[in-house]
Amino acid sequence: xxxxxxxxxxxxxxxxxxxxxxxxxxxxESLRAYxxxxxxxxxxxxxxxxxxxxxxxxxxxxxxxxITEEHVEAVISSMGRPEQFDxxxxxxxSASSQHKQYQRSEHPRGNLFRNxxxxxIGGVCSGMGSYFRVDTTIIRVLFVLLAFGSFGFMFFLYIIxxxxxxSKYITEAVVRRKLYRDADHKVIAGxxxxxxxxxxxxxxxxxxxxxxxxxxxxxxxxxxxGFPIFYGFSGSLLLTYIIxxxVIPKAVTATEKMEMKGEKIxxxxxxxxxxxxxxxxxxHIDENKDQWASNIKTxxxxxxxxxxxxxxxxxxxxxRFISAIFKVFVFFILGIxxxxxxxxxxxxxxxxxxxxxxxNFFPNTGMIQLYGWGSILxxxxxxxxxxxxxxxxxxxxxxxxxxxxxxxxxxxxTLGWISITLLFVTISKEFKRxxxxxxxxxxxxxxxxxxxxxxxxxxxxxxxxxxxxxxxxTDEEMAVINGLRLSRKEDSxxxxxxxxxxxxxxxxxxxxxxxxxxxxxxxxxAEMYAEQINFKVEQTDSILNIPYGxxxxxxxxxxxxxxxxxxxVPVGKEVYVDRRANSLNWFNIRGGxxxxxxxxxxxxxxxxxxxxxxxxxxxxxxRMGDLSDPDAPGQPPLPDSPxxxxxxxxxxxxxxxxxxxxxxxxxxxxxxxDTTIEMVSGANGSNNKISSVASxxxxxxxxxxxxxxxxxxxxxxxxx
Amino acid sequence: MNIENTQSQMKKxxxxxxxxxxxxxxxxxxxxxxxxxxxxxxxxxxGTLYPLLTRLKNADLLSYxxxxxxxxPPRKYFSLTDKGLSFYAELEATWRGxxxxxxxxxxxxxxxxxxxxxxxxxxxxxxxxxxxxxxVDS
Lengths: 720, 138
Prior knowledge:
The complex is a heterodimer. Chain A is built from 22 helices and 23 strands.
């Protein structure tokens, strides 16, 4: 449905569709611009208009009830567009050279002005744009970027320039390149092609730049380093592309296409110009020193006037000035917000990509997948993109002609809300019921009469989830932070969502049982998942080796599996739990009505701590050693206590030295990376050779040493 | 050096001459000129014809009169002025001389280099003569 309007064209009334009229108007304007330097420009354009009117008349006589876009298009193509004239026309040399001269000197760069005819605030950027013959939008974006980068320096520069530069109505459009989307040479939307046109480079250059990260991601297997970055980077590029797509207008009319190809941005000439000008300024200063004082005075008065002008509706006098400054300020704040959002969007994309490996472990029914993507794209990314688009459109001075864009944003975001709600509901369902399985471990009663719970690391190496995949270090601290560790093949994860519980035994022997838990939408499934937890405890006399975490493969998925090792200690017997129990991560996800997640950093709220010997008494568990003396052997300081690591190491050394009496020989070798401990103990009458090799990451040398020394201490206790 | 450029240069040179020659035969309306050129396989855009006509008119080579038309606004019919006629005569002489010279050059293939050289010189002289009116008027 198009509106048909009547126009008076060359003295005739012509009914014409509105869009067709717009095209016709633009075409005539482009002709006028093209012939603007010709001697009889009015006559030429008039003749052409005349002819067009005649052709329209013919169309009407042939039975058309009004002029359509197709008619206009046909007429224009038979008349030819201005950019075709240079190629085929018989415009003689002088005309086309005149034309070039028009581009070069018609609008002398002259002095830097503020452009009063195209301004958002004071016209500074616009003036600079016409001075350097660069698209004003680019200057504006650069300005905002710099304002962000320079912490407001640009903001002051803007005000200074506003005050210094004279204002001028630069009415004639300066012939310069404008950034358009080049729809004629497009692959997706012509963004990159338009960029290539603007910078006068081959179109494959920007395309390659945009494609490289994508290509690199494809060759992931070949380059096993830092991949999420490339994923994320290509994600950000995609985001950038979409924003550019929305922001940059498409070159439709001849004029726009001409503007797109426009004059080459000539850096050399800009340089010369600036050099010339600097010399000129020097001369000028020498000649007119005296005039300057009075000049500045008048200028500042004029500036004050203008600031008042800008802030007209706001109030009087000083208030006006304040509000003008405020306007600038708000503008830059908006810019900063937009950029922050952009950064945030990139981060979401990057981090979203880096948890991709974990995706396989989520209970992922098709619905969760769908809602998950829906929430990421529509709920999180969409508003960011929308705000950025809004902001840059503002900068580019594009006025939205239709409201469909707003409606689309709104509708899509509503979808985002729906999918995030559904996502939570669905996930919550998956974690609704708990299933529990209890297994008893066959235990031989230890000969020493006490039991020591030590953690062992799984054979397969597991790596902490590193957001940016910058390092593959097996740093203990990282594992503590992330809780989850991923196998090299990314097909299984190691979780240490487990607890150790010490209880009083009913009889006079040790009992160990393992409680496995998992969650699912129904109890039977949950029990099945709990059963699937792979966890084996091994005993060597008094030492109970407990895997430090359990492994879940991508078939059984993440079901908030939990594990409790219940140790029943008979009265009068001693028990020790590996200090690493401190870094077990216990967390809970509860579904049902809503989804709750809680995490307990503390190992346990029970009355005992790991890394200390305890004795079971009739009244309960009791710590061994003197409680009042923190340096007592039974009570080494906790790793979490805010004591200097060096101090801790010293303390542990002390302890080891004390124990050394029982040792036949002990050798601790510290290297930069590896530390070896070799000890021969004679405590049990036999020569036990205990050795431990540990690696300490370079950065945390002191912490590493601390761990090694602590292990040595444990070994000594073991040998006791 | 691309072929299109050379071709359009060649075309440029003769277009003015062709247009004048069409108008010389009798009053002509721009779209008639286009039609006639089309028949002769010389395609030009209408949009480029109008500025050319205006330029020739401003150089007093052409004059026009308004003729009422049934199909639309009044039309401009162009005819040659006296100055235009003599201008055309000169152009025609140049063209005839040049085309026969060019023919001879093209057909001289395979003959002695000395002959070719002579003809080349001849051709260049003629061209220089012929070009003078162009430079004066533009």
